[in-house]
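At this stage, I wrote out one protein, both as residues and as discrete backbone shape codes, and that material follows here.
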Amino acid sequence: MIEKIRRKYYLDKLLSYKDKDIIKVVTGLRRSGKSTLLQMFRDDLSKEEVSDKQIQFYNFELPENFLNKSWDKLYFEIKEKLQPDKMNYIFLDEIQNITDLEKLVDGLYATENTDIYITGSNANLLSSELATLLSGRYIEISILPFSFSEYLQGRKIDTSNKYLNYEALFYDYINETSLPKGIDLREEGYDKIYEYLEALYATIIEKDITQRHKIYDKRAFGNLVKFLANNIGNQVSPSSISKALKADNQNIHHNTIEKFIEYHIESFVFYRVNRFDIKGKKQLATLEKYYIVDVGLLNVLVGRERTADRGHILENIVYLELLRRGYKIWTGRLRNNEVDFMVENRNGDIEYYQVSWEISNEETQKREFAPLEAIKDNYPKFLLTKDAFTQNKSGIIHKNVFEWLIEK
């Protein structure tokens, strides 16, 4: 079932670039399905009568594939196995573990009859020398954990049933995990899911952050992460975080905080959203918002009491869905208010989104509609809530958020 879900959303896209003179780069959080995607692609090649000799698959999480091997040694090892006069498919999984990886990839790319696929769990993979070398010669496919729609498919929930209790299913989704493995672990109980998330985060911290960046003050690092997890969807800055932690007798310089935040963004744990001045039509450089890649991780970082409220958790889920749909995303700033999201869709058109858990009274309705009403352009404006009965107003489209999340 999980393979079918991934096929629908990612594999078809990867297949569309098969045999094209472009490097395929798959990025995303550890355990989000990158390696599974490459294995599925490899299986498809076998069905097309591509021989095993034409396929080379290196998993660089396994020490035997990279210890005591320089990039040039790997290069000649791969090149020696290439089949002449046939297309050769080279898979380099978790390539960030290779020193001078850009030289390896560039050398293979320059070799005739090679189709190259690489994965990485570090965003810097494409902001390093690799991106400079491969400028215009690669396509990035960024994998996120399961959407709400994918999660329901994984649980074999029939969404054509008009009596479904989406709210209860949504609570399952955010209280467990959106990572594919979570569905397999459901039958074993929540404790197994928690242990899995705890082990995953420990791996990210150890392999992708602490070792890579030589972090010794683990207490300060942990305090910063807990603060971010407690403040998803809130406007923060390194200086404001430093002041808040200082008030709690934790002294961390704002420059250190800035570095710690970047490390988590590099590892795809948190995503940063910049503010955009709607009237001034410019991006602002302060008071960003941060969202977590999987709200299930909040159980590990914050605890099951989840101090972040339902509204911000829902906002987090909407942000990730907008990201999946290929939008560029900002927080919209108005003179006296903020709009949760201003996005640019694939056609370059603007849309606005306000997110609220519910608008059950007149005061809440006024508060949530007001920022969208204050925007005087003619671009589409949406209010997303869990309310079963929606009410459009002043050209603003009010949608049930669960229905919006499972739209095709």
Remarks:
- The first strand starts at residue 23 and ends at 28.
- The mean pLDDT is 88.
- The radius of gyration is 23 Å.
